[in-house]
């Protein structure tokens, strides 16, 4: 199932469907009815799903399983909380593997076939946080950063049903697909389908905000719930316009996270990357923290450092390596980071961590 979810297979053309119906001896009037349903789906480039049972076959699940998963999805998730960078806790609802595989199929075989807006830089192959900050580089730029409040929870099951129906799926299939991707009536944080679906449903929002930005001579990008505008001048009228468009799209801004950075600012952090110098850099506090960790490891030794931290994390070096690799991704020419990574790599070989 995982392999099928990740591999995009070629979909039959309309003529191939017609030929299939003829070869099966389907009556012309019934074939015409089928073709009428298939045509918009083929045009959109998404898989044809006739009904609930057909969906079961495509997902490799029994009608009994899919019936339970669509009618009582809460039994197919585990919910936990993780700390937010800004403080507080974020609730994560992670689907069990049986449902997760269905959601991955929907994400890859349906949603990923549809182009998201160019301004959407998250959850897309070949993009990263650097793709999001690139349009905003420039020391002379003003930068406005706004955040959508409760991003995934704001996308309702009803809205998803309408979106699947807009692709051409009938009501039965649209409800089943939306039900498999939602929990308590909205997109859950933790489902592999939520990021893909959020980008798809925000296409109109991104289109409108891109047009507004363009009218003011500004660049615009959106990385999940973070939206960024930059340019030589941010007019006072921009924020009310953005808030209005966001509201009309079924979302709300988190005004506490709205930030405006002027060209003279020493810190312009966009999705965790400081672009104040005109080139991407890890924020100063994060660089200093990692440099301190490496200083203690290099001076006193890894085991002494870990003992002082009173850490029992068996994957400490692996996690540290991941943070350093992220730093290097943002600053690929930083030789200090390269030296840190080489040192941690040797420690991993010695201590068998990762």
Outline of the structure:
Helix content is about 50%, strand content about 10%. It has helices spanning about 1-5, 15-25, 30-45, 50-60, 65-70, 95-110, 130-135, 155-165, 170-180, 195-200, 205-215, 240-250, 285-300, 300-310, 315-330, 335-350; strands at about 75-85, 90-95, 140-145, 220-225, 225-230, 260, 270, 275. It is globular.
Structural class: alpha+beta
Could you say which overall geometry the principal axes of the C-alpha atoms support? globular
Low-confidence stretches: 1-5
Largest sheet: 4 strands, antiparallel
Q: Give, in spatial order, the strands making up the sheet with the most strands.
A: 4-5-3-6
**Beta-strand share of residues:** 5-15%
The run of helices and strands is HHHHHEEHHEHHHHEEHEEEHHHH
Q: What would the average pLDDT be, to the nearest integer?
A: 93
Structure description:
The chain has 354 residues and is of the alpha+beta class. It is 51% helix and 11% strand. It has helices at residues 2-6, 14-23, 28-44, 52-59, 63-71, 97-110, 129-133, 157-167, 171-180, 193-201, 203-215, 238-248, 284-300, 302-309, 316-330, 335-351; strands spanning 77-83, 89-95, 142-147, 219-223, 226-231, 259-261, 269-270, 273-274. The protein has a four-stranded antiparallel sheet with strand order 4-5-3-6. It has a two-stranded antiparallel ribbon with strand order 1-2. Helix 15 (316-330) runs antiparallel to helix 16 (335-351). The radius of gyration is 24 Å and the shape is globular. The two termini are 28 Å apart.
Keywords for this entry:
354 residues; alpha+beta; 4-stranded antiparallel sheet; 16 helices; 8 strands; globular; disordered N terminus; RNA-directed DNA polymerase; Reverse_transcriptase_msDNA; magnesium; GrpII_Intron_Splice-Mob/Def; DNA/RNA_pol_sf
């Amino acid at each position: 199932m995982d392999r099928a979810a990740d591999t995009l297979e070629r979909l039959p053309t309309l003529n191939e469907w017609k030929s299939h119906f003829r070869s099966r001896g389907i009556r012309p009037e019934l074939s015409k009815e089928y073709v009428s349903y298939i045509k918009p789906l083929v045009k959109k480039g998404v898989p044809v799903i006739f009904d609930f049972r057909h969906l079961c076959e495509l997902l490799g699940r029994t009608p009994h399983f899919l019936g339970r998963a669509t009618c009582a999805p809460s039994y197919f998730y585990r919910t936990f909380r993780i700390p937010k960078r800004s403080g507080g806790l974020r609730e994560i609802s992670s689907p069990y593997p049986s449902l997760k595989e269905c959601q991955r199929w929907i994400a890859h075989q349906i949603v990923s076939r549809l182009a998201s807006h160019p301004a959407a830089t998250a959850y897309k192959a070949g993009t990263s946080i650097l793709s999001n900050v690139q349009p905003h580089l420039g020391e002379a730029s003003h930068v406005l950063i706004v955040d959508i409040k409760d991003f995934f929870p704001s996308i309702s099951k009803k809205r998803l049903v309408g979106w699947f129906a807009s692709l051409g799926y009938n009501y039965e299939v649209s409800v089943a697909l939306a039900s498999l991707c939602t929990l308590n009536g909205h997109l859950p944080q933790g489902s592999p389908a939520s990021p893909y679906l959020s980008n798809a449903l925000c296409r109109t929002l991104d289109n409108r905000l891109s047009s507004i930005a363009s009218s003011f001579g500004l660049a615009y990008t959106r990385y999940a719930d973070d939206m960024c505008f930059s340019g030589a001048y941010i007019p006072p009228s921009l924020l009310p316009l953005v808030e209005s468009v966001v509201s009309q799209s079924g979302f709300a801004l988190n005004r506490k996270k709205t930030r405006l950075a002027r060209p003279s600012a020493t810190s312009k952090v966009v999705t965790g990357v400081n672009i104040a110098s005109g080139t991407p850099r890890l924020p100063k506090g994060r660089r200093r923290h990692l440099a301190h960790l490496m200083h203690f490891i290099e001076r006193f030794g890894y085991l002494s450092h870990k003992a002082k931290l009173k850490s029992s994390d068996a994957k400490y070096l692996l996690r540290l390596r991941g943070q350093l690799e992220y730093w290097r991704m943002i600053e690929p020419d930083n030789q200090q980071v390269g030296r840190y990574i080489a040192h941690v790599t040797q420690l991993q070989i010695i201590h068998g961590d990762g």
